[in-house]
Amino acid sequence: MPEHSEGAVINGIRENRRTPRLAYGVPIRVYATDFKGRDFVEDSTTLAVNLHGAKIRLGRELIPDQEIRILSGKTGRDAIFRVVCRAGDTHDKSTFWGVECMNPDHNIWGISFPDLRPRDQNAVRAMLQCPECRIRELLYLDEPILEKMERMGGLVRGCLSCGKTGQWKRVPYYEA
């Protein structure tokens, strides 16, 4: 896998994340303007979060680089986010969007995110999928854990989205 410089943007997604991305469904309320210029408010959920952004699901089309306001249903805090890109294919009339918090010091998720240490940034990336809810999470694994996971056919872990524990399987990695 090619190495990218710190903060490189690949297919509209920042590589070498500053904080880990967690597959975590947080109820949100989005205040925005759709691509036709109509204001709307929509209740939805995140699919994944990190201190600097999220992947969200909406029933509306947005425009990259526009600003939206997201209110966390978990904490009651809100922040302004910038739409980075469409993140994946349309699914059941929903669209998925990668968004970046304009003020990441204002953590609206209520989660403590550890900093990625330099050795973590050099770890092998693996996309794993929950066997129950099928949500995907990108993990940074060191070589011994990756080898053990390959031998055992997966990695037993808990899911923050559905709350169940199971053997997560590796799935093809792509930024979505």
Task: Please describe the structure with a list of short key phrases separated by commas or semicolons.
single chain, mainly beta, 2 domains, six-stranded antiparallel beta barrel
Can you describe this structure?
This protein has 176 residues and is mostly beta strands. The chain folds into two domains: 9-101, Beta Barrel (Thrombin, subunit H), CATH 2.40.10.220; 123-171, no CATH class. Helices cover 8% and strands 43% of the residues. The strands form three sheets. Strands 4-5-6-9-8-7 form a six-stranded antiparallel beta barrel. The longest helix is centred in the last third of the chain and has 10 residues, at 143-152. The radius of gyration is 16 Å and the shape is elongated. The model is unreliable at 1-15 (pLDDT under 50).
